[in-house]
Amino acid sequence: MGIAQKIFELGRQPIDEQATSAIPGYRASTSFVKRRTATVGQHLPVSSILGKQLPSKEVVYSLLEDYFDAIHWFSLAIYEPTFRKKLHTVVDGFAYPSQKPFLLLLAVVLGMGAWYRSQRRDSDMTENSAWRELSAELLNLVESHIVELMDQPSVTAAQICILFGSYHVYHGRPNFSFSLLGATIKISQAAGLHREPSRGDFEDVEERKRVWWTIYTWDRFASITYGRPLGINDKDCNISMPNDILENPYFVAPRSDHGYTICYSTYQRELNRLYLMASTALEAVFGSRTSGSSEKLAGDAYLALVKEATQNLQKWRNELPDHLFLDLEKDIRSDSGPSTTAHALQSLSLQLTYDNILIVLHRPFTGLPDQKDAAFEIPSPSAPVTSSVHWWNAALRTSRVIELPVLAQLATNSHLVAFLAINLFNAAIVLAVIALSDPLSDTAQIAKRTITRILRLQDLLGKRSALSKQSTTVLKNVVTLILRRESEAILAPITGSTQDERPRSMSDAVPMSVEDTLRLPLDASLETLNEQGRHQPWQYYSRAFRLNESLASVQDVVPFGNNDQSLDWYVNKAIHQSQDVVRESIGEDDQWQPSAQHDWNGASSFGETFEGVADTNGESGLYWLWDMSWNGTDF
């Protein structure tokens, strides 16, 4: 079909689209439609094209600024210079029918802007409710045209699907979002966005680059977050990185002439590089899940992949531009300007992505019974760091966002809110697994304090994101596990065995001396069964074994797709277990009460259901990373 189109174009003859629309490879000739439409002068009210009138010009401009403030810096789906030019042709309420795709793009942008406007704390409830209603109307309008857009591959169609999908992945409909992601990839490939343009003006080329790379990062995010297969093969793409472009985020009173422009695109380029560096190792991870075996992840080939990826990622982080490097020792000023604020949020996004990738890449080593835990050389300082240390450090860095309250508040008010919640959840699970493996250690105490702050922040984030509500429930269950394991370590009888003999309690035979008792490790009272079914003290097991046992414990509180329990079941379990821990560990006659009473029914009592907690086909959704299938079973 492409050759036929080229031949007709040489003769300046348009192909009869009625005669070719069913042929694979057909692309609508939008330029011909535009010329014909302009000739007959069909300038119609927007309401007659969309079936609904868009807001007034003043409201449109105001919501666009909200969109740029909350979303654009994070997801560069639109190219501001081109978007602004097209906006000026329709903002008076009239448009040509051929501009319908752009009108739908404008609708989804305004709908998302209205939703974030409705979350403002400085507005009254009535006004916020009106903005939420407008947001729902606009997004429903876009959804009613999604199938139509899929039949018309174009840059604009891809932009609409990107934004519509990104909204729903963060607000309770991830399955719909991932279906839309697959369609968006195919739409973009049909429009040739994955190939370097051979011609076209600068702005058109930059827009195509920006849209494609946004889809690429969406695909990688979906895979890492939900354990889905990669949808884009790097070998199929030959498009270059977008350039640094200054953009004007102001519409009510544009001030670009006075230096009020912001360069958002450096962030996109660095994010692209980050995912590209990890792609080969990620393909191995998801390939093992598809094949149903984790043997490859235990081999030297994957070890080499992760070693190379880790070194490249660390080098990438050290070479970041200053304005995109997150300083964990310094919070942003509350009176910072738009450019500083946008770049601070972008630096947080890059740091979260970087650490989450490290957690995913090093996760397979933690689940292996005979973990190699090989040392990886880091560029600077030059010292070996084990895989488990990479895991711990990545989780700690992620959790340190709780030490940056101003930046965390800005993230909560933006499109980063659910992404932040996802990464905090994974960090908390890493900390919990390590705490469970050695419950009385100093490391465990650090982990508990950090998880406490993460849980408090997740409770607040839950008011903005369905994902945060779900993860809060699971984290409460995890806290219960830690308390139970800690109480067992403190209250269980001391064992005085060696590795080859059955442990004895203090009531058996001759009591231990004071000196011997005080020389015992803190976890001497913990026992487990060895391979022969005999009780064995916890301290005799390797760190890898302890971590693996801790991961197994997490299975009891994380909802996976291979069981029939609902989210409500896990909520009730968290409530009852928290009560049981106090009764069992302290005793019914003791009057001691926790120093801070926490409402365990609060953020976990939902009046709605959410997708993505578990999948009836055995997929673990958001919690795939903590499934014991990493040990090669139960895929």
TrEMBL record:
Keywords attached to this entry: Nucleus
Stretch forming the signal peptide: none
Domain Xylanolytic transcriptional activator regulatory: start-end pairs: 177-248
GO molecular function: DNA binding; DNA-binding transcription factor activity; zinc ion binding
Taxonomic superkingdom: Eukaryota
UniProt feature coiled coil, ranges: none
SMART domains: Fungal_trans
GO annotation terms (biological process): DNA-templated transcription
Keyword Nucleus applies: yes
Name this protein carries in UniProt: Xylanolytic transcriptional activator regulatory domain-containing protein
Organism, as annotated: Talaromyces pinophilus
Source organism phylogeny: Eukaryota, Fungi, Dikarya, Ascomycota, Pezizomycotina
